[in-house]
Amino acid sequence: MSDRLAWLADRQEILDCLTRFCRGMDRFDRDLFLSAFHPHAEIAAGPFVGSPADCWDWAVPMHEAAQPMTQHLLLNHSVEIVGDEAHSETYYQFIARNHPFTADGGETVMQAGGRYIDRLERGADGWRIALRINLIEWNCLQPSLPLPFGEIADAALNGIAARDRSDPGYARPLVNRRPHQRP
Fold first, then answer.
1. Biggest CA-to-CA distance, the chain
2. CA 167 to CA 172: how far, in whole Å?
3. Domain of 41?
4. Nearest to 11 by CA among 87, 123, 117, 91
5. Phi-psi region of 23 (alpha: psi -120 to 50; beta: other; left: phi over 0)
6. What residues does the SnoaL-like domain cover (predicted)?
7. Full-model pTM
8. Is 154 helix (H, G, I), strand (E, B) or coil?
9. Within the chain, how many helices (H) and strands (E) appear?
10. What's the CA gap between 82 and 106, in Å, rounded?
11. Total domains present in the chain
């Protein structure tokens, strides 16, 4: 039983590592993003191949210029752990709201999906990605629709999505500032 519990703890720490990558990229939190990788790691993602720090320097300006919102979603996750090395395959979906690029000024939403194929190593600071291969398997572009709660006058009282530490996801303690109401 203790071997099984140790495996489950390792698996969860590996999934937490992958989640740090996603949250770090979506919130533009460089330290959180880099904490998912060993300093010697290599990433091959789309046209980019290089180090995690170089990937950050390449990706963030691109997202800032083109996309006011991104979401990296983790889906099916499998992992093989042997000692201090692990190999994982994690399906992902990427969604981005694009700045208006159409003639009528309308926004678009880009979606892409694929798999992160990762080799992870456990070090003194826990599990970190040593090699990431990003297999992009599909993508599409569609028109953006208005947010369904855009008309709610007090919706922003609990904060608005931001790509920095002002985002409500960083609030401690988390509190609700909206009065109880039943539409």
1. 62
2. 11
3. 2-146
4. 87
5. alpha
6. 8-132
7. 0.90
8. coil
9. 3, 6
10. 50
11. 1
> The sheet that has 69-82: what strands, in order across it?
48-50, 37-45, 126-143, 108-123, 85-98, 69-82
Is residue 87 one of the residues assigned to a domain? yes
Residues 6+ apart with CB under 8 A from 97: 67, 68, 69, 70, 107, 108, 109, 144
pLDDT at residue 144, rounded to an integer: 78
Q: Which of 163, 143, 151, 136 is nearest to 103 (CA)?
A: 143
* CATH code for position 104: 3.10.450.50
Residue type for 84, please?
Answer: D
Residue ranges of E strands in the chain? 37-45, 48-50, 69-82, 85-98, 108-123, 126-143
- Specify the range with the lowest mean pLDDT, choosing from 18-32, 144-158, 167-181: 144-158
At 9-19, the pLDDT tens digits run: 999 999 999 99
Pairing of strands 108-123, 48-50: unpaired
- Give just the sign of the alpha carbon dihedral 60, 43, 30, 39: negative
What does the DSSP 8-state code read for residue 134?
E
Is 49 among the domain residues? yes
Q: Summarize pLDDT for 100-136 with one digit per residue, the tens.
A: 766 666 788 999 999 999 999 999 999 999 999 999 9
User: Is the residue at 169 inside a domain?
Assistant: no
Q: pLDDT per residue over 18-48, tens digit each? A: 999 999 999 999 999 999 999 999 999 999 9
